[in-house]
Amino acid sequence: MKNSGKKRVKWAQEHMPVLAEIRRQLKKDQPFQDLVISMALHVEPKTAVLALTLKDGGAEVYLTSCNPLSTQDDTVAYLKKSLPVYAKKGETEKELFAGYEAVLDKGPNIVIDDGSDMIALLHKPNRKDQISDILGASEETTTGIQRLRALEKQGKLLFPVMATNNAVMKHFFDNRYGTGQSTIDGILTGTNLTIAGKTAVVCGYGWCGRGIATRMRGMGANVIVTEVNPVKAIEALHDGFRVMPTTEAARQADFIITSTGNKGVIDAEALKNAKGGCILANSGHFNVEIDIHALEKMSEKTEREVRELVDAYYLKDGRIIYLLGEGRLVNLAVGQGHPAEIMDMSFSLQALAALYLAEHKGEMKNEVYEIPYALDSMVAKLKLKAMGVEIDELTEEQRKYIESWEL
Ligand SMILES: NC(=O)c1ccc[n+]([C@@H]2O[C@H](COP(=O)([O-])OP(=O)(O)OC[C@H]3O[C@@H](n4cnc5c(N)ncnc54)[C@H](O)[C@@H]3O)[C@@H](O)[C@H]2O)c1
User: Fold this and answer.
1) Which strand (E) or helix (H) includes residue 246?
2) CA dihedral in degrees (130, 134, 138, 141; nearest 10)?
């Protein structure tokens, strides 16, 4: 398609009304004047809308990817007309890290990261002279927040970080419904196979896992959930899913989908049990959830790209196991990522988190901050308005009844 980058960014923009409203205000107020913002996010149309929004707010914006396979090259080509972008689909790990270094070399005041690889580089001794210029960072995903909380606990966090992932209007919708829908998009794009009537094993029943399990069931799959957290396991049971250990579930699986944020979830033991023809996909942030090394060791032959982004592993015992998107997040590596309407909420919060950092310059500690509920609530109200949905309001009497009980 001619001008596909431009058209796809425009399409996303038209479906991101909350961010459009915030963009209008930022354009008027110019809160990011004289600030450099370096971003490491999946470089695709919705991210382009966020980058252009921050630029309209007065920032000098630099963008790189946070994953070697999630970049959409037509978005890069279009965005490069407005700001520097350092990403291409299928880049090596070395090129990915060179991208982080390139945007950090621009001397950012605010960094926006997804997974915290870039924030980790900013903590290296060779970057220590830059730290005084940093107002703070904003982190997009669960895995990144886990890493930053660990750093904070060790007293090693060098600047404030906004936990954008933890905002209600982010993970309730992005992690659950966004990942739920787009993981299916990735699996269908990769395989063009039937989901109905098949058995799908979903590893992890957190925000993402819940979304994936529910959507897979909606497509007619027989879903089994695996967990390590007993509460989540009971929740899955009460939602009507079967729950069992991963090694046992693998025997029945036509599809296995991981989204735990953990490593080695599909290990040699699970792979030993996996049914021939089983399709493995990961929707967690890093490509560590499926033990690809173990899969390689068990195989006598590997065939790259039997379909686009589908690799076949021919096991010594005759089974074939397929891996989607090299074990990288299937919804972005193979599919098109979350729907624009979902990223409207996530990226509105990213823009507001950056604004919060700019407005609270010098007032924040080197800690991980939750997004203030007022910002969540503002995004929720704008979203409802954009959807044309009205809700009731508490009467004064009801408010008093709820808030002021006395003995
Ligand atoms: N693909 C995407 O677009 C996308 C979007 C949002 C988040 N993520 C990523 O997905 C991952 C999960 O995010 P989340 O928000 O659902 O996290 P979460 O913390 O809500 O859920 C993770 C769940 O996995 C379970 N778990 C951990 N180890 C396990 C194991 N060995 N076996 C089975 N279950 C295990 C945990 O008990 C937890 O319930 C993270 O890496 C996150 O960064 C991806």
Assistant:
1) helix 246-250
2) 20
Residue 405: predicted pLDDT: 82
Contact in structure between 210 and 179 (CB atoms under 8 Å): no
- Residue among 385, 330, 352 nearest 215 (CA): 330
Residues 216-234 have pLDDT tens digits of 999 999 999 999 999 999 9
Maximum Cα–Cα distance across the chain = 74
pLDDT in the model for residue 221: 98
**DSSP state for residue 204 in the 8-state scheme:** -
* Type of residue at 67: N
Taking the C-alpha atoms of residue 240 and residue 165, their distance in angstroms, rounded to an integer, is 27
**Residues with C-beta less than 6 Å from any ligand 1 atom:** 141-143, 171, 174-175, 179, 203-209, 226-229, 232, 259-262, 265, 283-285, 329, 331-332
Residue with CA closest to ligand 1 atom 25:
204
The radius of gyration computed from the CA coordinates of the chain, to the nearest angstrom, equals: 22
Query: How many Å separate Cα 213 from the centre of its chain?
Result: 17
Neighbour order of strands in the sheet with 60-64: 85-86, 60-64, 36-40, 110-113, 136-139, 161-163, 368-370
Q: pTM for this structure?
A: 0.96
Look up residue 165 and give its two tokens. 């992932």
Which residues 6+ apart lie within 8 Å of 120 measured at CB? 147
Cα–Cα distance, 224 to 255 (Å, whole number)? 10
Other C-beta atoms within 10 Å of 98: how many?
13
Taking 70 as the pLDDT cut, the residues of the chain under it are none
What is the torsion angle, in degrees rounded to the nearest 10, for the CA atoms of residue 228, residue 231, residue 237 and residue 241? -40
Q: Provide the pLDDT for residue 406.
A: 83
